[in-house]
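Q: How do we represent a protein-ligand complex in a form that can be generated token by token?
A: Start from the inputs.
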Amino acid sequence: LLSPSGAVAPTIFAEMSELATRTGAVNLGQGFPDVDGPEHLKEAAIAAIRDGHNQYPPGPGIPQLREAVAAHQARHYGLSVDPDTEVLVTAGATEAIAATILALTGPGDEVVTLEPYYDSYAASIAMAGATHRTIALRPGPDGFHLDPDDVRVAFTDRTRLVLVNTPHNPTGTVLTTAELTLLAEQAAARDAVIVTDEVYEHLTYDGVRHVPLATLPAAAGRTLTISSAGKTFSFTGWKVGWVHGPAELVTAVRTVKQFLTYVASGPFQHAVATALTDEDGQTGEYVAGLQASLQSRRDLLTGALDAAGFATVRAAGTYFVVADAAPLGFTDAVDLCRRLPELAGVVGIPVSAFCAAGSPTAQALGSWVRFTYVKQESVLERAAEGLTRLR
Ligand code: PMP
Ligand code: GLN
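Then emit the structure tokens for the protein with 4'-deoxy-4'-aminopyridoxal-5'-phosphate bound:
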């Protein structure tokens, strides 16, 4: 009944969280914080409810939030964004991704993404009836990289859209300016729209800087940038996201969005507007603290995986680290992930779940597992202890 390609199927996150619940294993599968974001933002949401912001918000999003998004992009990246015509608030980044793909692509169009990719990409492309082409991220001694030849081959005269994700889920890669430039130049050469999913924009480590695609000259005038409050402020359940870019593209996305959710998260939009405008206050302090603590939690989990015998690639950003189980003698990560609760009391997600079924990348990364470290240190320590049993 679902799409013949299998791209629209029950999400792996639900399956793996259910496995964790059933077995009592530490859930390092689905990436969500086990501690809420700051109290003062909860209070802002409560105040918004008390103040009567409980009916449908405006279709494009409340003006305060659109202005806050525009100001954020100017402050951090020097981008000039018109809050009235170039910003659309969505039900999380997920809706922004779906509405964008549905608005801009259809049968006969090709959409290029990196592979592995966040699972909703393939599902949205399938729902649009478009064709999915991928560029492999390949592991090397200094992290995952794109091969320029793969990039050139992925683009064709049918390419309508390229959907990039940096910092990258699942690999933790922060794409370099050179890699982003190559993607933008290819898109420009094909007159394709660039969509960039930057939900982890503030979660980079070791001084690595996130470069927004929209800041590159080749990307100018053709780029839709997507982000969300979920990761930055640790309120993944609030589902407040946004997309910004050229007015005519945003208008097209808004037209589709009307018929997906119409609007969403009214009171939370107010709280997120507060969060985005409070960079010099408690919120800025919170985000800086989150980033620092995630860096040290990344180190804790990566160290534990290394000690257990995995080969890891140090994540430069996101909530995630990927680890190759081949040195431990496990060649099939899907099978390993099903047994990991029993073997080590831990749940992870096979990296192949972020790949097209049976693709060369799925095979190349067939022994790799993604683990999240956005969990309390005590939880990660319990996982670390369990992982020692694998040796
Ligand atoms: N894109 C990526 C790369 C993600 O990791 C996530 C969250 N898991 C999303 C989009 C979805 O974000 P939201 O919860 O705001 O819909
Ligand atoms: N983005 C989170 C992850 O990659 C989870 C999102 C979801 O469950 N849909 O783990």
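The first helix runs from residue 12 to 23. The chain has a mean pLDDT of 96.
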